[in-house]
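Protein details
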Amino acid sequence: MASNLPPIRSSSDDVDPRPSRNAPLRLARLGATFLGVSVVSGVLLAGLALPVAGGIGLTAKGTAEGFEDVPSDFKTPPLTQATQIFDAKGGLIAKVYERDRTVITADQMSPFMRHAQVDIEDARFYEHGAVDLKGVLRALSKNAESGTASQGASTLTQQYVKNVNVEKAGDDRDAVLEAQRKTLGRKIQELKVAIKLEEELPKEQILTNYLNITYYGNGAYGVEAASQRYFGKSNKDLTVAEAAMLAGLVQNPSQYDPKLHPQAAQNRRDVVIGKMLENKHITAEQAQEAKAAPLGLNFKAPQNGCITAQAGMGFFCDYVRHVVKQDPAFGQDSAERKKFWNQGGLNIYTTLDPDKQAAAQNAVSNNVRITDSVSAAVSMVEPGTGKILAMAQTRPYGLLEEKNQTVVNLNVDAAMGGGNGFQPGSTFKPVVAAAALEAGVPATQEYSSPNKLEYPTMKTCEGTWRNEARPKTVVPNESANEKGPYQLKMAMALSVNTYFIQMEQEIGLCAVKQMANKLGITTKASGKPLEEVPAMALGVEEMSPLTMANVYATFAAQGTHCTPIAITKITTVEGKDVPVPAGHCEQVFSEKTARALNTVLNGVTENNGTGAALSLEDNRQIAGKTGTSDHKRAAWFNGYTPQLATAVWLGGPKGGVEMRNITINGKYRAEVFGADGPGPIWRDAMNQALRGTPKQSLPMADIPDAAPSKADPSSTGTTTGPTTTTGPANTADPTTPAGPTHTTDPTTPAGPTHTTGPTTPAGPTKTTGPTATTQPDQQH
């Protein structure tokens, strides 16, 4: 009996060998839809542990009981922002940032911007909760039809949560990659936060946070930085077309970069404009006008970091960065201080005087070329406050060595971004004089000051230094004609090496070291400890120009030493004050000593002193000291008026250039001294810096000149100890002075006979120190 049913066929019967184009698509669509519904209704509901009303929670703002509180980072994210550094007159030195962002409020944003971003990213933002179920299904269907993942389904709130996680990762590349990983577990975690966030924050605040955190390409984070980057204006001033272009960048900032791909950017902008019209946020006329408008870019390239500073201020800018990252006032440890700096959003007001900075920069630039084998550096400090007023050097701040740029700040110690410093030469001799005067040595003290002298035995803080080299180390004066006796005033004016070695022996190395410490010289520029060796008096231990400028500022301030300060005030972008370290000032030697030093150092710049050619254009009173190091590798002039102390260094940036037979600024020089190398730089800088300011006099002491005496013309050989002009020869120990004659100090009332400075308990013998048989030119 025949059946009316169709015959049973195998799955291969009558199969068209050409596959239907629609069948797989239908299957894919059904599969995708099924998967989407399964994920949303199954995995998400289970994974998120939604309550019974979970369906409502996905489509509208609903309850989310059982979730933890949203971390505060998501409510008010600690967004990194740009920090601005200002000079003392309010001028911008530089803007520095990890991410260029300026956080603004909703009312500081263009309404067009807010509408455009919502319309293109999440048009139903105000209708759904953290998850848009309709959007998920629509995206799955469209992606199935196109065979690509061209349409996403993340809501604006979900995108915001992800951006916060990336922001929190900071500059940790691994953490950033982890925050961006597309895994089910991470998606669930982000959804949990997004759902709770929708419950606790109004939609308007979520949108504001989103617009402040999102990346818009070309280094611009947030809508305000993006507006400034692309259009050179504030976000609140954007037109419809401009707002639409920015909103369109978010999906792919590189693909729609208006500088690199202007047509793609314009096409994307027009899509956004269409969405704004579709959602009735602009009129048809506005849409037509916006689409007809050109992109109208006014692009401002990113200006980040100290490298953007003008007028040579980059090195000071970098110094400020080191201050913030190292001073305990800005965090208990280095990690906390680094976070404080990287977080940004600060307005840092500094001590840098733009006029004095210009004076210093002009002086170094006009006297030394950036292509010369040597460089120059200038630091200016205000006496009595420690304020750093200028910091300049010949070679510009930058990373291109082929253009003679450098990021090494030659004005400061290694710990603050500098190198290992330079031997200050004879500019250290006033430190010895200050120690001696404080120890009671009179300003009229006379020593035999032979032309050459074997380094004598000296007391240290912990023992005794002895000249045990064989042959014994000898220190010479600069010329064969320099032989004593000399008193302090003339010895300083002529920079007589042997005089200061004899003075140093009388008071002991410990007294010199202690005075150096009081003046802010606690270590070498490299950070290594100071060495108690006789050559200390001749400036063999490397210092930085800023350190020496501050020493001379102490002389100018009548013995008041202040720690150098660069920052006067810091506020956050919200206007809150951040505590800054206050300058610490204290009297480190007496005003009597200060007056004597002023008189002695003023003598260096007058008559036959080594700095006599350095008088200023208005003939105001100055004081200072020249210095030249071993083998002419560094030359200095440090000087001051009551208002300003300036230190100038000249030499090879890495310390290895001997300034003999050298061309500097196009002029050949047989050799360089402190007076004719750095001296003119100092004079030019001070002339410009002080022009138009009131003249002030230095408090001086009445120190009579020494009576004329005839030195023995045959006394050009080496003396084994600091002999005196009167008194019996010391036959007990040729390295110990016989007790030099101390004439009455006219600055001190008559009193008991002076005895030598503080003694040090005997201790182990120390043999460290110079080993050369002759100590070279440490003098002028």
